Amino acid sequence: MAGERLQRIHGLLHFGNEAEPSSARLCDVCAEVTAMSGAGIMLMSGDLPLGSVCTTNDVSALIEDLQFTLGEGPCVDAFTHRLPVLEPDLAGTNTPRWPAFSPQALKAGVRAIFGFPLQVGGVCLGALNLYRDGVGPLSDDQHADALVMADVASQAVLAMQGAASANAVATSIDVDGDFHLVVHQAAGMVAVQLGVTVGEALIRLRAYVFSHDLTLTELAEEIVAGRLRFDAA
Q1: What is the tens place of the pLDDT at every residue in 77-108?
Q2: Backbone phi, then psi, for 56, in 5-degree steps?
Q3: Rounded alpha-carbon distances, angstroms, from residue 222 to 110, 179, 195, 228
Q4: CA-to-CA distance for 128 and 42, rounded, in angstroms?
Q5: How many Å is the maximal CA-CA distance in the chain?
Q6: Rounded-to-integer distance, Cα 67 and Cα 216, Å
Q7: In which residue ranges of the chain is pLDDT below 70?
Q8: Whether the Cβ atoms of residue 151 and residue 127 lie closer than 8 Å to each other
């Protein structure tokens, strides 16, 4: 059965004359195979979200951006725990699983959301995010398809990145991705200013955003332009 799923997925990925699927096609197939409203793929390293490889629509793009900005959500948990994260009813509890993420995702129309780690051997690259605009758990077939799709996505991302030079993002990934380069640049600058790790610097940026009604990108642009320093009194 797993072999049949894999064969079907590869057939969808290589539809038409494409020798290798684009990252956008990869996300489209993730949503199609699992019968979800949308899908996104987030890359992570250590405890840092690096950004989104691809998304299928505006809602899935918002989901990825929220997780990057807030540092919480199904992809973050799936990556951290190396296990699927299943939330069949995002509004179905008085205590939100993700206090900052859930209200904004619900406002965008997300009703159920699922995260699956992207793993190759003992290495976890990030997570596949699937969302639905109606409540309800995944069926057994959908869960099995999502697991196979996460494995295929892991291999595809490695294959795309394999052609890139060291410390560079492959063109086939970057063209459809959103890696928040200005935010990473700002986090590096704040890390130097405060003498902390980049991970801690990103936490400081998120805290500042919450208290000053800014987006993470707006704050990062201020820092990179030299208009704001974190080592000032």
Answers
A1: 999 999 999 999 999 878 889 999 999 999 99
A2: -100, -20
A3: 32, 18, 19, 6
A4: 7
A5: 62
A6: 12
A7: 1-21, 47, 161-179, 232-233
A8: no
* Residue (of 81, 75, 53) closest to 63 by Cα position: 75
Q: Which of 157, 207, 179, 115 is nearest to 26 (CA)?
A: 157
Q: What is the C-alpha separation between 25 and 205, in angstroms, rounded? A: 33
Rounded to whole angstroms, the Cα distance separating 182 from 162 reads 24
**124, 117 in Cβ contact below 8 A?**
yes
Going by C-alpha positions, the residue among 62, 31, 28, 29 that lies closest to residue 130 is: 31
State the Cα–Cα distance between residues 86 and 62, nearest whole angstrom.
19
Token pair belonging to 178: 């959103």
Q: Which helix (H) or strand (E) holds 131?
A: strand 123-132
Buried b (16+ CB within 10 A) or exposed e, 148-171: bbbbbbbebbeebbeeeeeeebbe
| Alpha carbon distance 207, 201 (integer Å) | 10
